[in-house]
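Worked example

This section walks through a single chain of length 185. The input is the sequence exactly as stored; nothing has been trimmed or padded.
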Amino acid sequence: MSQRFCTQCGAKLPESGNFCPNCGAPVEEETVAAPAVAPPPAAEITEADSAAILDAELESQTTDRRGGLSKELAAVLAGAALVMVLLFAGYLAVLRPGDAGSSSSEAVTADSQEDADIPYPQVARITPDDAHIRLASDSAIFVDVRDLDSYTEVHIPGALSIPLDEIEARQGELPKDAEIITYCT
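Given that input, the structure is written out below as tokens.
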């Protein structure tokens, strides 16, 4: 029978018994035969022996018995690959078809043409992501310009309710030195 070693401390295990005589760890039924580098008795372990034991242990943790990657390492690598694919797909999703080779001046012209169809094109607009950042950092005042019933039903936490038809009369309620973001549905 080949020699058996404790999976906890590396001590040589006796032929029979359920616990390691060195550390008291339970003996696993399927203990591994002598590792690539059998550890010497604890008192005689040198730094080089310790490094060799750690190398053998690391190799056994990252490869399965067929010599391939362990399931855990393969899962981590697959997860990392999936994240990279999703990030790349997100990057591509940001680009509109035909924009990949266009210059920034062409993009501005296209946006200006789109803005011509919206009311008050001279009013600056921000993206929902920028609005969310400002909400999270509490760096802007949000004003819901929908009617009171819509505001009561659902609104951004902390937003003020000033319906659009009242905004001119109630503009004095808003600080002049703060960024104000109005929204509606």
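What to look for: The two ends are 77 Å apart (CA to CA).
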